[in-house]
User: Fold this.
Amino acid sequence: MSITVSDLKEYFRVTHNNDDTLLSKLLETAKSLAYEKTGISYKSGDYLYEQLLTYYVQHFYDDRAAFVDKETAEFPYSITHLEKTITYRGEIEPSEEQTEQVQQTQQVQEVQQTEEI
Assistant:
């Protein structure tokens, strides 16, 4: 399961929809930053990576004033520790469920290509 804006809102206890677009943009920024910091791509179901993304978004969301004032806010230890852990760990192997989903998708695509011919 991939992390969503709804997941973030639940985690942050945000009950309104006013910031949905902002949270979506911050999530995309978090994914880019996480890849830049760790060299590891996000894969759905990587709960450690999802926690890092959640922490990034929370940091950006809570510290919006720092970005408006052009100040650089330091990341808390929990973020830097997760970055190091993910970098050291490297890519994760897909779960059996994810492997099955990929295989099913490939089979459907092959059938569709065969039908087109």
Remarks:
- The chain has six helices and no strands.
- The mean pLDDT is 83.
- Helices lie at 5-12, 20-38, 47-62, 64-68, 77-89, 96-116.
